[in-house]
Write a structure and sequence with these properties.
This protein has 229 residues and is mainly alpha-helical. 49% of the residues lie in helices and 6% in strands. The chain is built from 9 helices and 4 strands. The chain has a two-stranded antiparallel ribbon. The protein has a two-stranded antiparallel ribbon with strand order 3-4. Helix 4 runs antiparallel to helix 7, helix 5 packs parallel to helix 7 and helix 5 runs antiparallel to helix 9.
């Protein structure tokens, strides 16, 4: 999700990806049938046999390879291994505040090439992505096995009006969204967080979706340092 220079989820996870057709099975109160059934049977069994850990103690290295698409490894690799999920979200919240508050006003509308996002639009993208991945973490954490839709980040920026907002307003918006994410993960049980569902035609666990938000913000702050400042 590097500005609009990277592919969207729709491009990353093609529609023609096909799972084998297997008999349906039941999980909690839901029934999964059709193409995804075998995938869920294997992944849910694996996730529930993982050593149970309190959400405040879970660390990024606890996430198994089958809990996310390899595309998201770039973000997970940027999450500090010594921090728990709750600690990482809180520390990341402060880092985002400190970083964007320090950017000079004359740089806030800068874009390093035509068609790329401005710094304000990058911050709006962090907010939008956090909402989407927190929603995925919520749905999957609650045991909802409905396959969740792709997220085309490029469609969200223009109507957001990010460039007309102040950095202060954008950071207030980010703070509200990140506090919601923190509240959400603290409300989910260990087993909730290890639930695995499908988003963008690819498996993802509730905890992976939450951890991705941490690394995603770090990724974009590094890009701003390299290409904008």
């Amino acid at each position: 999700m590097l500005g609009n220079s990277l592919r969207t989820e729709t491009q990353i996870f093609p529609e023609k990806f096909v799972f084998p057709s297997i008999k349906p099975f039941k999980h909690t109160c839901c029934t999964i049938s059709g193409a995804f059934s075998d995938l869920f049977q294997v992944l849910l069994k694996t996730s529930y046999t993982t050593i149970n850990k309190n959400s405040n103690l879970m660390k990024v290295q606890d996430i198994l390879f089958n809990e996310y698409n390899s595309y998201y490894k770039r973000y997970l690799d940027l999450v500090a291994t010594h921090l728990s999920l709750a600690e990482g979200l809180e520390k990341g919240r402060q880092e985002v505040f400190d970083f964007f508050n320090a950017i000079p006003k004359d740089k806030q509308l800068y874009r390093y090439a035509e068609g790329k996002w401005t710094i304000k639009e990058v911050l709006q993208h962090l907010i939008d992505t956090e909402r989407v991945f927190a929603y995925r973490a919520f749905r999957i954490g609650r045991g909802d096995v409905t396959a969740l839709a792709n997220f085309d980040q490029n469609l969200y920026i223009a109507p957001s009006g990010a460039n007309e907002k102040t950095i202060s307003a954008l950071l207030d918006e980010f703070d509200i969204v990140r506090q919601h994410t923190i509240s959400l993960v603290n409300s989910l049980s260990d087993r909730n967080l290890m639930n695995i569902g499908v988003a963008s035609r690819s498996p993802i666990s509730s905890r992976a979706a939450a951890f991705i938000n941490i690394g995603h913000a770090v990724w974009h702050m590094e890009i701003i340092k390299e290409r904008y400042l």
